[in-house]
Amino acid sequence: MAASDTQTPGALDGVYVLDLSRILAGPTATQMLGDLGATVIKVENPKTGGDDTRGWGPNYARDHEGQPTDLSAYFMSANRNKQSIAVDLSTDEGQDIIRQLAARADIVIENYKPDGLVKYGLDHATLCKAHPGLVYCSISGFGQVGPNRDQPGYDLMAQGYGGIMSLTGDPDGAPMKVGVGIADVMCGMYATIGILAALRHRDQTGEGQHIDLSLVDAQMAWLINEGCNFLTSGQVPERRGNAHPNIVPYDAFAGSDGHVLVAVGNDAQFARFCDVIGAPELGTDPRFVTNQLRIENRDALIPDLRTRLARLTKDDILSRLRGAKVPCGPIHDVAEALGSDQAQARGTVVEIARDDVADGHVRLLANPLKFSATPVRYNRPPPRFGQDTEAVLATLAPQKPQD
């Protein structure tokens, strides 16, 4: 899929975002806003070479001589549709630049430690007082209040503190983090929702506001059914590997040549499932005829199913279950997922032109939103560090000479 026409209107055309965030949660949110048409100015620290993730290899876009650039795959995953400026917030000049940019901004997003911007006069209280219509979003590990407010916020720590690691992994193994930075990503999605809601409120009333969002709060919010299972029963959920706490059978099963997924959602599906795998007696067994009974007798049912399915190939299992309209599916690796006919039909991979890299473009994961009137745009590839500094600063008021 090629980048979209730059003239196509975006849902957030005219919205100006000042992005003081780095790594993943904040950049996920601002990339989403940029995809929807907002102008995003990403501020990077010249003392450190910019966003930390620029150096998070080993995979980088390479220049025409084959040398790695500062466009790591990690950085590119969350930083398209942005302009990068190099500004030192610790200097008077840098602070003045940020104030001028904030004066024209609809949205400011930052992920410094709580009160980390107070000493620069760039905190939410200061900027929101100066600009009452400003939507200012602060992302931190634990939020602006609470006994852990000053603890650093990393995805791994959020997954551990917020409970999701206790639910992830083999029942007999160690707690396991999710394979990608899902606490960061979901926090960024909550940030996007909060920002858009606050922006609508601002547009209706003229009143901006401060959004206080933490990785740990967001992660606890998406404990979803397991969180509510505990709140309802008082019983601490346990790791079940790929199994489901509320549906049986719902798991990965080994065929004779690899694993498949089976997700039996109701009792009629279970009866058909048993029929097509050659075990109709299980479908009428009084221990298993309802989902509640299957949950209670999980330990009797699942080993029997594993033994029976292990005699069939993956393709045989999937063919039989699909024919009986029983939910099932393969377990793709990343290459298989992104190369699948479904991914191609949906435009899951996008190419964005970038003349200074070897292939003349970078390949990225597309935004999944499909709009009928204001489609997602891919106007800008992920920026090199500070590449837009001169152009952006040229739009600001001239600096007063120093005495």
What's the arrangement of secondary structure elements?
Elements: E1 16-20, H1 25-35, E2 39-44, E3 60-62, E4 68-72, H2 73-76, E5 83-86, H3 92-104, E6 107-110, H4 124-130, E7 135-140, H5 155-162, H6 182-205, E8 209-214, H7 215-221, H8 224-233, E9 250-255, E10 258-263, H9 267-276, H10 280-284, H11 291-296, H12 298-309, H13 314-323, E11 328-330, H14 334-338, H15 341-346, E12 349-353, E13 361-365, H16 389-393
Parallel strand pairs: 1-2, 1-6, 2-5, 6-7, 7-8
Antiparallel strand pairs: 3-4, 9-10, 10-11, 12-13
Short synopsis of the structure:
The chain is of the alpha/beta class and 403 residues long.
The share of residues in helices is 25-40%
What proportion strand?
Answer: 15-25%
- The CATH superfamily label of the largest domain reads Crotonobetainyl-coa:carnitine coa-transferase, domain 1
CATH architecture of the largest domain: 3-Layer(aba) Sandwich
Which overall shape is indicated by the principal axes computed on the Cα atoms? Answer: elongated
How are the strands ordered across the major sheet? 5-2-1-6-7-8
How is the main sheet built?
Answer: 6 strands, parallel
Total of helices: 16
Q: Could you say which structural class the secondary elements and strand pairing correspond to?
A: alpha/beta
Mean model confidence by pLDDT: 96
CATH class call of the largest domain: Alpha Beta
What is the alpha-carbon Rg in Å?
25 Å
Record field, number of beta strands: 13
Q: List low-pLDDT spans.
A: none
Q: SSE string, helix = H, strand = E?
A: EHEEEHEHEHEHHEHHEEHHHHHEHHEEH
CATH topology-level fold name of the largest domain: Rossmann fold
Distance between the termini: 55 Å
